[in-house]
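Supplementary Methods S3. Complex input for the flavin-adenine dinucleotide-bound model.
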Amino acid sequence: MKPRANIVWFKRDLRTHDHAALLAASVGDVIPLYVVEPDYWQLPDTSARQWAFIRESVVELGERLVELGAPLNVRIGSVVDTLSELHQHFDLSLHSHEETGNDWTYQRDLAVKAWCEENAVPWQEQKQFGVFRPLRDRDGWSKRWDALMGQPQVPEPEGLTPAQGLKSEPLPTWRDLKMADDPCPGRQRGGRALGLATLDSFLNARGQDYRKSMSSPVTGFDECSRMSPYLAYGCVSMREAAQALWARQKELKQLAKQGEALGLWRGSMQSYNGRLHWHCHFTQKLESEPSMEFRNLHPGYDNLRPDPDRSNSAAEKMWAWSEGRMGLPFADACMRALNATGYLNFRMRAMLMSLSSYHLWLHWRAPGLLYARKFTDYEPGIHWPQVQMQSGTTGMNTVRIYNPVKQGYDQDPTGEFTRHWVPELADVPDKYLQEPWKWSQAATVIPRLYPEPIIDHQQAARDAKTAVYALRREPGFREISARIVEKHGSRKKTPRRRPRRKARAVEGVG
Ligand SMILES: Cc1cc2nc3c(=O)[nH]c(=O)nc-3n(C[C@H](O)[C@H](O)[C@H](O)COP(=O)(O)OP(=O)(O)OC[C@H]3O[C@@H](n4cnc5c(N)ncnc54)[C@H](O)[C@@H]3O)c2cc1C
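Predicted complex, serialized as structure tokens:
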């Protein structure tokens, strides 16, 4: 007779608190398991900066598990092979959280499911995000999210009984995993302790001006929550973040009743509540429509841009975009900041993606992969739906073409951010910083130190708008859009606004 053992398979849930799978497994002998999958780390959407963050988080998780009594078992290889090997020695049951990952992890999970069925190993999956399987449409989705996040947090087990006779492997480095070098000096550090400290400092100190500061990269690095990687890899659970926010909102309400001047606190916390919902709202889209990783959500856009685009000009444009060498100072500064830190605030992520798709007229798939590698917080469930939304291929969102020059003057009025990341432009007067080619002494800088713009951004935006709107008038387009809205659209009522002038609907164009 083999001894019984309950595996807790840690994936994107690198914590011991509010971990339903760990608690469920703790009733018997436990094998806390983390499998490093080298094939995953060779995928074109993964990078060493992501692994470095996860590695730090796994180290801290391991320390906590030692304190609880059952050390983390680290294995390198495929999950199915690992399970097969453990199954030779133990009568297993498997516990984990549900994951909405990329297609590779989805196929991996299918293989694990098949293996479990073949070997009569029960696999119990728990929910940690407000992402529901299966889901036909979005009716009542937000209420379900609130109910799930309002449930009591799952306590950390008081102690764990370890399964005996296990051998763990050392955690590999990015070099061991044969990953490309990926210097990222400003990367956020992993681990639950930092995640909790980041949440606390946001809710109680940094977050006051969040609502008005979130759009600019000058303020966004300090005044956005910076919780994204901690939520993406589950160092802190979404429920913990939501409940800490709600407690803070309650406290603020009380303080307001007592007549305290709260500045922008309450509005900012309301905005944050919306963003936490967005995390799962977007992830639900990929869960319900996994093909979004590869194909346009609205097939009416299928011939809009070539995919794959193997032309030299596409390769040159993608290189200039990725390196921050487009000759568009603010956009270049944003990309260089992302390259060096692994982070960018939402509005600037959206602007760079829209620039690639509309102005440079690149299909979203190849830049989307490159873009994913740059983010420490890469979360496929948010990334791919956002990539498509900012590229205008969902058929359900307003076409949004950012003007990179206007964004520069609006979001970086003093030019400090642009000059920091594009020091070649240090001597360009403020008035011309975002359009240095208009400066009378432009020849001292362009192209010797800094490139000429690779496109006429205003003309490119006009051309893109014409092409996109022509497709939207095609017969049958609207009917497909209506079906997409029915399946994926948010049901939340938006406040009534005064109608905007038509020319402003597409920013900076027209
Ligand atoms: C093209 C593109 C790709 C993106 N890829 C990712 C990604 O891989 N991983 C990721 O976590 N976010 C992604 N985002 C969403 C967003 O930009 C980041 O979540 C946010 O900038 C992270 O910073 P923060 O934690 O300080 O966010 P905050 O503004 O403080 O928001 C709080 C939390 O809400 C969630 N959130 C915020 N904005 C969004 C949004 N627009 N959509 C969905 N969830 C949101 C995140 O979990 C975030 O941590 C992407 C956005 C775009 C436009």
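The CA atoms of residues 126 and 322 lie 38 Å apart. Residues 291-505 form a domain with the DNA Cyclobutane Dipyrimidine Photolyase, subunit A; domain 3 fold (CATH 1.10.579.10).
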